[in-house]
Design a protein that fits this description.
CATH class of one domain in chain A: Alpha Beta
Shape of chain A: globular
CATH class of the largest domain in chain B: Alpha Beta
Largest sheet of chain A: 7 strands, mixed
Shape of chain B: globular
CATH superfamily of the largest domain in chain B: Beta-grasp domain
Largest interface: A-B, 60 and 58 residues
Strand order of the largest sheet of chain A: 3-7-1-14-11-12-13
CATH architecture of one domain in chain A: 2-Layer Sandwich
Largest sheet of chain B: 5 strands, mixed
Strand content of chain A: 15-25%
Radius of gyration of chain A: 27 Å
CATH topology of one domain in chain A: Aldehyde Oxidoreductase, domain 4
Number of domains of chain B: 2
Low-confidence stretches of chain B: none
Number of strands of chain B: 5
Oligomer: heterodimer
Number of strands of chain A: 28
Structural class of chain A: alpha+beta
CATH superfamily of one domain in chain A: Aldehyde oxidase/xanthine dehydrogenase, molybdopterin binding domain
Number of helices of chain B: 5
Distance between the termini of chain B: 55 Å
Number of helices of chain A: 20
Helix content of chain B: 25-40%
Order of helices and strands of chain B: EEHEEEHHHH
Strand order of the largest sheet of chain B: 2-1-5-3-4
Mean pLDDT of chain A: 96
Distance between the termini of chain A: 58 Å
Strand content of chain B: 15-25%
Structural class of chain B: alpha+beta
CATH topology of the largest domain in chain B: Ubiquitin-like (UB roll)
């Protein structure tokens, strides 16, 4: 971390902008239809691109014949794997998730084998969408179909169909003699869990399962890309990181990173699903061949079958405890579908599984398993909601067996400052107990319940990250400011950036205009992901604003002809020592900006940093449901989510993150799942059959913001976007169990499943 | 393929465009008339991001052929603010922070306008069911519902005054 200048930092007790709720700077664009998303961009002379996709879950590509398609009038380019370099295996770090570049390239365009239904085998660019679609139909692909495997435990079996002949399990020793679908074992151990379980007075032993679910952003992936005759590339696309798009396109195409300029479009939701590339390298390859810009937009069916989702899982939890409810042992095994290539969030799930608890002896094993389904992508706190579903369900059962209040058992075992986290570091400045206090004292916790109604409690943890960010602050001649960052604004971060800059500069927030800059106009910035933007990019914004103030003080000192050390900055103005006649010296920002041409030129500052010290986040949720015993339908009656957010920069958008995370978690718990037919084809690749929550499915969601400031952020902010999706799966499931008296350990808790369980008793 | 000539009224103005037989109204609005405020989230009438008001009726423009627009009246998000003044629904969405990514927002605003045109005093339940055809993955709908109810209250006051 670069050394932060702190002397110009406002006193947090006297904040004027932070914590208020101004209208977001990009708001009018977004309520009037002016905001331009991925599919809204047009380039002169652009072609339309379409993708030819595998109809099979697993097959060898025998041949691809593009002759008929090429002969069709209006077809300008066709690419297959032959048009991309065959990359060597190489890990590439990108924020929360590392990618293997060879896998990335082979996911963008299949080489030799197709590994899931929807895997691209060719792409076409033509003068119209209808011609491109006709050309896709004319491409003849001969496949030799292979047995497929999607279920995670079936994929782990020794006789399972093998996806990759080069895949040997990492993280076990000795290295296995033969390849398998098990890509990696993650292992976290402390003490002797077997002995602790044997000595435990109470043991809970349960198996839990979840299905693959999609991030479900409403905007399908979209881009326009152009490669000029000199090799210079332009990409306009909707993603969680324009720099990620730039790097991945360069690697997949084998060109220089600096030859690509990526301009971020507005992004219509991502939730982790837009932290990789699918279309952009194809569009660039098609543009290289055709010499024209190429626009590509996915259909919803393509989004479901060929992007995202997150893992389905099988989990086994054994908890040992004393009769008083102190948890002494936790043995957790997590088996996660990775989809076609390694990289499930089994590692993060293992690290978060028991992160909320102080357990002396534990063993957490996470298995990353490849399957013939789309390669999983990050989904909001990747892995954590899945593991929390299992662990929080088991803790609920433990509390019931012991007759303990669900909040009391969590308080008894919960982590506090100074405790060593199960995944390694020692907790500092965490607000877990405070979130438990918040739900316990909330009226919801004592609200009466009727027949067929039940209440569930669950908690959740997410690391939150910092990382690489850049921001620039430019003063205008009239004293207003522009803040440029490299972080795509996925849910209101322009507002928090402008507010932090305004707070430091002493300007009204309306005089700070934030933009999201393209890759040629701002320093490198990592993904909008990991709940890092307000923390890390916000830190860059604050430091850039502080540098601007240093410069303003220097200019004031120059004007007054006094040493700069004698000038201070207060409430948007430079204050100097008294003049020789004893008069006050004060120059406000507007005046200094107006005179900047005569005092040394334009005033601006850019800061690039690698932010450390993101504060981990905790949430505690209460959910009330009613279960219709005839239909098995679950209705969420009340929902309360308390979360430690450090300090809410713009409370409305923080509440919005919490409410949105809860809604996604409720969908995951009750309805959402990938359904595959016997041939491994997705049966519900549309919003009618893959049912995300709609307005009539949900009550108001009470977001309770708990503020335990993070001392490593200038204003105390912690990441907030991911924590709220961690507890809901278990909170809903615990409520359904309480309402029905039946154990239900297989998500989603859809009506047929509940009805069957109720009939079975 | 020969093209079809269409004349219609969009946001009060006469428009003309050429379209192919299989093109949706949504694609014609976006590609022929450059009105990209209406979005395609699914293309199958499930998400509501393409919502328009067609002859007074809330419609998914992805489910209507452009050729069917002949002689009809279409309201899109681009016509909601008048003379630079935001519609109360638009202002309330901003005031309540009822949007995050904003992609579903044009469709939600159009659907909410159709609701308030038909029912100036909807209950929360009526509002939730009316907007059940508009998917929002970011907000959990809480602030959206509050914004619509608040806009309804303000519009009732304006009408009463």
């Amino acid at each position: 971390m670069s050394d932060a200048p702190t002397k110009n930092r406002p006193d947090t007790a006297a904040l004027k902008v932070i914590g208020t709720r101004p209208v977001r700077p990009d708001g009018v664009d977004k309520v009037t239809g002016r905001a331009a998303y991925g599919a809204d961009f047009r380039a002169p002379g652009m072609l339309t691109g379409r993708v030819k996709r595998s109809p099979h879950a697993h097959a060898r590509i025998v041949s691809i014949d593009t002759r008929k398609a090429r002969a069709l009038a209006g077809v300008k380019a066709i690419v297959t794997a032959a048009d991309f370099p065959d990359l060597a295996s190489q890990e590439y770090e990108a924020g929360e998730s590392a990618s293997n570049l060879r896998d990335l390239a082979m996911n963008v365009m299949a080489r030799n084998k197709v590994l899931y239904q929807g895997h691209p085998v060719a792409a076409v660019a033509a003068v119209s969408a209808s011609i491109a679609e006709a050309a896709v139909a004319l491409i003849e692909v001969t496949y030799e179909t292979l047995p497929h495997v999607i279920d995670v435990e079936a994929a782990m079996a020794p006789d399972a169909p093998l996806l990759h002949s080069h895949l040997f399990t990492e993280g076990v020793s000795p290295r296995p003699a033969s390849p398998s679908n098990i890509a990696k074992r993650h292992l976290f151990v402390r003490g002797d869990v077997d002995a602790a379980l044997a000595a435990a007075e109470v043991v809970i032993d349960r198996r839990y399962t979840t299905q693959a679910v999609h991030q479900g952003y409403i905007e399908p992936h979209a881009c326009v890309a152009e490669m000029a005759a000199d090799g210079q590339c332009q990409v306009w696309s909707s993603s969680q990181g324009q720099f990620m798009v730039r790097t991945y396109c360069a690697k997949v195409l084998g060109i220089e990173i600096s030859d690509i300029r990526v301009t971020p479009a507005e992004i219509g939701g991502g939730f982790g699903g837009k932290t990789t590339v699918y279309l952009e390298p194809l569009a660039l390859a098609l543009s290289r061949q055709s010499g024209a810009p190429v626009k590509m937009v996915m259909t919803r069916e393509e989004v479901f079958t060929a992007t995202g989702p997150t893992s389905g899982s099988v989990m086994h939890v054994r908890l040992g405890a004393t009769r008083e409810g102190r948890i002494t042992a936790a043995d957790v095994e997590l088996k996660f579908q990775a989809g076609a290539f390694p990289g499930s969030p089994a590692g993060a799930a293992s690290m978060t599984a028991i992160a909320c608890y102080d357990v002396a002896d534990f063993r957490v094993v996470g298995w990353d398993v490849v399957t013939n389904s789309p390669k999983v992508a990050a989904y909001r706190a990747p892995g954590a909601p899945i593991a929390a579903f299992a662990v929080e369900s088991a803790i609920e059962e433990l509390a019931q067996q012991l007759g303990l209040d669900p909040i009391a058992i969590r308080r008894l075992n919960g982590v506090r400052d100074g405790m060593k986290a199960a995944y390694g570091p020692t907790f500092e400045n965490i607000g877990f107990m405070e979130t438990l206090d918040a739900i316990e004292s909330h009226p919801h916790y004592k609200a009466p319940l009727g027949p067929n109604q039940g209440r569930g409690v669950a908690v959740g943890f997410w690391f939150n990250i910092g990382g690489e960010s850049s921001a620039a602050v430019h003063l205008s001649e009239d004293g207003g400011a522009v803040v440029a960052t490299g972080s795509p604004d996925i849910g209101g971060s322009r507002a928090s950036m402008a507010m932090m800059a305004a707070e430091v500069l002493g300007l009204p927030v309306e005089r700070v205009r934030p933009i999201v800059a393209d890759t040629a106009s701002i320093g490198f910035t990592g993904l909008t992901g990991g709940s890092r933007t307000t923390f890390a990019t916000g830190m860059a914004v604050v430091q850039a604003a502080e540098k601007v103030i240093e410069e303003l003080k220097r200019r004031a000192a120059l004007i007054w002809d006094v040493p700069v050390e004698t000038v201070t900055w207060e409430a948007g103005a430079a204050i100097g020592p008294l003049d020789p006649k004893g008069g006050a010296r004060r120059l406000d920002l507007d005046t200094l900006a107006a005179q900047s041409g005569r005092t040394g030129g334009p005033i601006s500052a850019e800061v690039s940093l690698n932010a450390q010290g993101a504060g981990p986040g905790f949430g505690a949720h209460i959910c009330d449901v009613e279960v219709d015993p005839e239909t098995g339908q679950v209705t969420v009656l009340r929902y309360t989510a308390a979360q430690d957010v450090g300090r809410a920069i713009h409370p409305s958008y923080v509440e919005g993150q919490v409410q949105g995370g809860v809604a996604q978690g409720v969908g995951w718990a009750l309805n959402e799942e990938y359904v595959f037919d016997v041939d491994g084809r997705m049966e519900n690749a549309g919003f009618l059959d893959y049912r995300v929550p709609v307005a009539s499915d949900l009550p108001m969601i009470d977001a309770v913001l708990v503020e335990v400031p993070n001392p490593r952020h200038p204003f105390g902010a912690k990441g907030v976007g991911e924590v709220p999706i961690v507890p809901p799966l278990a909170a809903v499931a615990n409520a359904v169990r309480a309402a029905t008296g039946v154990r239900l350990d297989d998500l989603p808790l859809s009506p047929p499943k509940i009805r069957a369980a109720l009939q079975k008793g | 393929m020969s093209k079809i000539h269409i004349s219609a009224t969009v946001n009060g103005d006469p428009v003309e465009f050429l379209t192919e037989a299989g093109v949706t109204l949504l694609d014609a609005l976006r590609d022929e008339l450059a009105l990209t405020g209406s979005k395609e989230g699914c293309g199958s009438g499930d998400c509501g991001a393409c919502s328009v008001i067609l002859d007074g009726r809330l419609t998914c423009s992805c489910l209507i052929l452009a050729a069917e627009a002949q002689g009809r009246r279409i309201e899109t998000i681009e016509g909601m603010a008048r003379g630079g003044e935001l519609h109360p629904l638009q202002q309330k969405f901003l005031d309540h922070a009822a949007l995050q990514c904003g992609f579903c927002t044009p469709g939600l605003l159009i659907a909410a306008k159709a609701l308030l045109d038909a029912n100036p005093d909807p209950t929360e339940t009526e509002t939730r069911y009316w907007l059940a055809g508009n998917l929002c993955r970011c907000t959990g709908y809480d602030k959206v519902i509050r914004a619509v109810m608040d806009a309804a209250a303000e519009l009732r006051q304006v009408r009463a005054a």
